[in-house]
Specification:
The complex is a heterodimer of chains A (about 350) and B (about 280).
Chain A: H1 7-10, H2 19-29, H3 33-49, H4 56-81, H5 89-104, H6 111-134, H7 140-159, E1 164-165, H8 171-174, E2 179-182, E3 185-188, H9 189-207, H10 209-219, H11 221-226, H12 231-257, E4 259-260, H13 268-278, H14 290-309, H15 314-336
Antiparallel strand pairs in A: 1-4, 2-3
Helix pairs in contact in A: 3-14, 4-9, 4-12, 4-13, 4-14, 5-6, 5-7, 5-12, 6-7, 6-12, 9-10, 9-12, 10-12, 13-14, 14-15
Chain B: H1 2-8, E1 26-35, E2 38-48, E3 53-58, H2 64-72, E4 79-84, E5 87-89, H3 94-99, E6 102-105, H4 117-121, H5 132-135, H6 142-155, H7 173-187, E7 191-195, H8 203-218, E8 223-226, H9 230-236, E9 239-244, E10 247-252, H10 259-267
Helix pairs in contact in B: 7-8
The chains are: A mainly alpha (about 350), B alpha/beta (about 280).
């Protein structure tokens, strides 16, 4: 076995010769660095442009604005980590919010029961996506394109296209909009729930076997299966859990709007994907983190808010976010090509 | 078998007169698998004895991979029997074979490139922390898995990897193979099956992996090696199972036959001799 002692020589590390390569390796090892840099630069730039940007009042507004999107993006992250995509995220959130509101008002249920039933409905909608993806083996894009349309359609039927006012609902339904003042900063319960959910999934993805299996499945499904992972079960769990997260997002949405409206949320589907992509999670699966997604959601919020304060029209805000997404995806492609 | 015993092994060995007198660790009898009218394997036998490296060679379509898949649970044969330590076993899934102690390193390696070495070693059989942290919070015992991973890697002489927390995608082909082989050696209690482990590697790394396979064998795990690389097969195998037309043509040893003779038997250019090993 003397041969084995010569092993170290064979496993030499190559030196990165150029700055570009070094940056590529750095981003490859720490994918959160890129989005974090963008967020910090954006905050500095906007606070120079408009002094009001960095005030506690404005920052709490930014956080409130991103809370719903961030919650949806959390579910979206789990799915994108498995190399899937969920176009129905916003539809599930809005439909769940309408269902809870209807349960609590027209059906006259107590707030807690209505809320839990709403969560159950969101979870079931996620499970339908999961079932179609894992059992019928349809591509996630097609599945969620179909369910997006179906859920929005049912949403209109159930709600009669009418908004349910928050004042007609039990207090629990709009509780997420209440806030704790910290100086001029108003931290809503919705934001606290959102941050706790991120902490929970940060732990679940990094420190549990389920998390490892999510990454392994997204990285290479066949390899994961051969390694003994029940990839179908992992995928199903991811879509189902995402459904629950969207429903919680729907609850937070009621608090944010102080009503349940069937006509909001069309843009939430794509915004949740935007946040995930900006956060450095790869659309090809197996790579990314929920911290990145939180940063990605904050980037969207900071840009929208900062451009608005800077007097940029709404239409051009979309333009800027779109550009950011393209840059982020190009960056991801480049990082993926890392040579070892 | 006597040649193999003489060269490699167990100190207490008295040269055995005939291989057939010993109990194989893994034995297949008359395995048959048909796909419609196509017969992938047709009454194929195989014996793997303790402490040996058995190479399986054969032309494309000879039924090598079907035979191996049957042994590793990846396909269920239509007919035939498999015995593990003399007891009949039936594998319906790769999980069944794994639970019985047969580990397979697939050609695709079945590693998750984005996860680190320790994660990959324990992929699919992660260990949780003891106590409520593990049972309630399902927390993985990262430090334990890392030290175990380190131990397994160093037992196979590959402890030199800089960092057990390094992502597998940052490793070379040979290093990845080493991770996959270490995983099979760590968890395989009876048999390790390696499918073309050197196919994608350069000369140097290929030799490293061959050494790794010897190490696995010397630690007491018999190995089945499927390979197209004749020099590698003749360098490392104790016995060579030649598969032809869906069944075993013969078994030779690197001493009894030359490489070109083995290839001739494999391709049908020469009549298979009776088993010499």
């Amino acid at each position: 076995m003397t041969a084995t002692t010569s092993a170290p020589a064979d496993f030499d590390v190559r030196k990165n010769d150029s700055l570009g390569l070094r940056v590529q390796h750095l981003l490859h090892a720490n994918p959160v660095l890129g989005p974090l840099a963008v967020l910090i630069v954006a905050i500095i730039a906007f606070s120079i442009v408009n002094a009001r940007f960095l005030t506690a009042t404005n920052l709490s507004l930014v956080l409130q604005q991103v809370t719903v999107i961030a919650t949806l993006a959390l579910g979206q992250t789990l799915i994108i980590l498995t190399a899937g995509i969920d176009l129905s995220a916003g539809a599930i959130a809005v439909f769940s919010s309408i269902l809870m509101a209807e349960f609590a008002t027209k059906a006259g249920m107590p707030g807690l029961i209505a809320l839990l039933l709403g969560f159950a409905c969101g979870t079931a909608m996620g499970a339908i996506n999961g079932f179609l993806v894992t059992r019928i083996k349809l591509p996630p894009f097609i599945v969620t394109l179909g369910t997006l349309t179906i859920f929005f359609s049912l949403n209109s039927v159930v709600s009669n296209s009418e908004t349910v006012r928050g004042t007609d609902m039990p207090g629990l339904m709009t509780w997420t909009g209440n806030s704790i003042p910290i100086g001029n900063f108003r931290l809503t319960y919705g934001s606290i729930i959102m941050l706790l959910l991120f902490a929970f999934f940060f732990y679940a993805l990094g420190r549990t076997a389920w998390g490892k299996h999510v990454y392994a499945t997204g990285d290479d499904t066949e390899s994961a299966r051969l390694a003994g992972i029940q990839t179908g079960r992992v995928l199903f769990s991811v879509y189902t859990v995402a459904g629950l997260l969207y429903a919680i997002g729907g609850w937070i949405l009621i608090g944010r709007l102080a009503s349940a409206s069937p006509n909001v949320g069309v843009e939430y589907n794509l915004d949740s994907i935007t946040a995930v992509v900006l956060g450095g999670t790869s659309l090809f699966g197996g790579r990314g983190s929920v911290i990145g997604t939180l940063i990605g959601a904050l980037i969207v919020g900071v840009f929208r808010n900062g451009l608005q304060l800077g007097g940029v029209e709404v239409v051009w805000q979309g333009f800027a976010i779109g550009l950011l997404v393209l840059v982020a995806v190009s960056l991801d492609q480049w990082i993926r090509k890392v040579k070892t | 078998m006597t040649t193999a015993e003489g060269r490699h092994a167990a100190p207490q060995t008295v040269p055995e007169p005939r291989a057939a007198d010993r109990t194989p660790v893994l034995q297949a009898k008359g395995l048959t698998k048909r796909y419609g009218r196509v017969v992938a394997i047709n009454g194929s036998d195989l014996e793997l004895y303790p402490g040996e490296i058995l190479a399986v060679i054969g032309d494309n379509g000879a039924g090598k991979s079907s035979l191996i898949k049957a042994l590793s649970g990846a396909l269920v044969p239509d007919e035939g029997e498999i015995f593990l330590d003399g007891r009949q076993v039936r594998f319906r899934t790769p999980m069944d074979a794994r639970a019985a102690g047969i580990e397979t390193v697939y050609q695709t390696l079945a590693v998750a490139p984005g996860l680190d070495i320790a994660d990959n070693l324990f992929l699919g059989r992660e260990q949780r922390k003891p106590g409520p942290l593990g049972s309630v919070f399902r927390m993985l015992d990262k430090s334990h898995m890392r030290s175990e991973a380190k131990r397994h890697m160093s037992e196979l002489g590959v402890a030199t990897l800089q960092n057990i927390g390094q992502a597998v995608e940052s490793l070379s082909g040979g290093q990845r193979q080493a991770v996959a082989v270490a995983r099979s050696a760590a968890f395989g209690s009876k048999v390790v099956i390696l499918d073309e482990p050197t196919a994608a590697l350069g000369v140097k790394e290929g030799n490293r992996v061959l050494q790794l396979i010897r190490d696995v064998r010397d630690r007491g795990l018999p190995v089945i090696l499927i390979s197209h690389n004749m020099p590698h097969v003749f360098e490392i195998a104790d016995r060579i199972h030649i598969q032809r037309l869906g069944r075993r043509a013969t078994v030779v040893t690197p001493k009894s036959h030359s490489m070109s003779e083995a290839v001739a038997i494999m391709t049908g250019a020469a009549e298979p001799p009776p088993h010499t090993a």
